[in-house]
Every structure is written in C-alpha cells, then in structure tokens.
Specification:
With about 190 residues, the protein is of the alpha+beta class. Helices cover about 50% and strands about 25% of the residues. GO terms for molecular function: kinase activity.
C-alpha cells in the first residue's frame, strides 16, 4: 500500500502540487483492491462509487449497444486514474463498463470521502479540476481524430501518445478503440513504424 501511495503522490503532485496537510487528508481515504482478468469492475446501470488509481494491469472502458456491439472508449493502466468518471462525478447510473483486461491492482477511494476531502481542502478540489481539464482536452482531441483522421493517422497518433500500448493491450481492443477493422489494424502494425 505504501508503494501505491507513493506512486499516487507523484501523479497528484504533477497535476497540482499539494502541501503536506492536504496530501495527508487525501492519502487516508485510499484502500487496496485487486481484480482478476476480464472482471467487470463497474457495469452499465451501476452508479460508480469509487475513484480508482491503477497500480498494475490494464483495463478498458467500453459501451455496449442494444445489438451487443462494443465500442472501446478508453484504456487505463499504471499509473493512471480509472473508473467511470461521469457516473462518479454526477452520481448517476453508468452507461459504460469498466473491465480489467489483465489481472489488476488498484487503490480506490470512495467518492463520498473524496468529495468531503475536496470540500474541506480547496487545493484537492483544484487538483481535481486541473485533472478534469486535462482529461477533457484529451477527449476533444480524440473526437477530432475519430471524425477527421484516416485509419493510419489514428494509429500513428495512438503510438505517439502511448508508444508502449501495443505491448499492453490486445490488438483486437486497440482496433475497436480506433474504429479500424482488425485485419486492417494488423496491416498497420506491420507497416507503420514510429
């Protein structure tokens, strides 16, 4: 747990530095959690109750339509925050699934406790806002890619953002995430070098 909190501390400090008292208040609310491979951590219809911080493994957030077609929306892995953030922050049922792709370890904080810390510690609230701003910026960039870029451009951008992703995430999920046919994705893997 101590190593996980050190990792969380380094990520939090990079988002928005906290002083000792603010960090102590924030660090007390996290508890360890483990999940097996292909475990649904949060299901569509459930309200997300925890903010997760990934310390090991790979997860994905996906949408399942009424015809059971999947759309992979995001991946999380060490060291990043995870969970269904819109459900968490708005306290509404999720439209998405949060699933482990590999055995995974997290520390997680109940949102009720996180809200209390953020309410009493303005620097923690500012850290949350700074993190959400960066996340929103990334989502907008991703929307432009989805709507305007060719398959090869999407693939190249993914590798620029996360050069290690091909070793972390099964290719079928990456193809789905990029909206590329799996066969064409395999061709891109063999063709494109960054």
């Amino acid at each position: 747990m101590e190593e996980s909190l050190k990792l969380l501390y380094s990520v939090v400090q990079a988002i928005h530095p906290l002083d000792y008292a603010d960090w102590e208040a924030l660090s007390r609310i996290w508890k360890p959690m483990n999940a097996r491979r292909k475990e649904i951590v949060t299901s569509a219809g459930d309200t997300e109750r925890y903010l997760y911080f990934v310390t090991d493994g790979v997860q994905r957030i996906y949408y399942l339509d009424d015809q059971h077609r999947e759309a992979t929306l995001a991946f999380t892995y060490r060291p990043s925050f995870g969970g269904i953030i819109d459900s968490l922050l708005m306290e509404v049922p999720s439209r998405y699934y949060y699933e482990t792709l590999t055995p995974s370890s997290f520390i997680r904080a109940p949102y009720s406790e996180f809200k209390e810390v953020a309410h009493t510690r303005p620097a923690v609230e500012r850290m949350l806002r700074a993190g959400m701003t960066t996340t929103l910026s990334g989502i907008l960039e991703r929307l432009v890619e989805v709507q305007c870029f060719s398959s090869e451009e999407k693939f190249r951008n993914l590798l620029k953002r996360s050069p290690h992703i091909l070793q972390l995430v099964p290719h079928k999920y990456l193809a789905n995430y990029l909206g590329i046919d799996p066969t064409n994705f395999s061709k891109l893997v063999n063709k494109v070098r960054i």
